[in-house]
UniProtKB/TrEMBL annotation:
Protein name: Uncharacterized protein
Keywords from the named record: Membrane, Transmembrane, Transmembrane helix
Residue ranges crossing the lipid bilayer per the database entry: 58-76, 83-102, 122-148
């Protein structure tokens, strides 16, 4: 059996770390923006109001939510590195613990400084709602569970490494 180079393993985990950082940013900003955008709509049937047809902004927000769901599914089920799920899970779970211990301090972590795009200025409102409702805790646990599986830390096994090569003079065992 051939030993895998430590450089390949280190590169796999480095790529997983980068994917985890990008996933964290997309989850926080994209999810916060989508939640804040959909919160602006009245609930169907609330106070006797009939449901309003969704505008383009609502459809875009729902598309962002679907894309986030796809991204989270790929990170949870993917075999890149467990760090891809570990980084966002630790951010979400740590923020939830801070919220449980001191809600004012956790909400103080939300930025009030304008972002690089004006549309994302409403993201902190949605992030606060997702934190307050426990959705970040639920997502953090879902992202953390695959980290506990030992098979995620081991690299992919190659078929040629698994095959047993027999010597011509040796008997074969089944």
């Amino acid at each position: 059996m051939k030993a895998r180079g430590s450089g390949v393993v280190a590169m796999r985990h480095f790529v997983g770390l980068l994917i985890g950082l990008v996933t964290t940013a997309v989850l926080l900003l994209g999810g916060g923006w989508a939640a804040a955008t959909t919160l602006g709509r009245p609930l169907p049937g609330a106070a006797g109001l009939s449901p309003q047809p969704g505008g383009a902004q609502t459809w875009i927000a729902l598309g962002v939510m679907a894309g986030l769901g796809l991204l989270l599914g790929l990170v949870i089920a993917g075999r890149v590195s467990p760090l891809a799920g570990f980084v966002p899970s630790m951010v979400l779970l740590a923020w939830t613990v801070i919220y449980v211990l001191d809600a004012g301090r956790a909400m103080g972590l939300l930025t009030e400084v304008p972002t690089f795009h004006r549309e994302l200025d409403v993201a902190p409102v949605g992030m606060g709602v997702l934190l307050n409702s426990g959705i970040y805790a639920m997502l953090g646990v879902a992202l953390f569970l695959p980290v506990l599986m030992p098979s995620r830390w081991a690299g992919r096994s190659r078929e040629e490494d698994d095959e047993y090569e027999e010597e011509p003079g040796e008997p074969s065992y089944y």
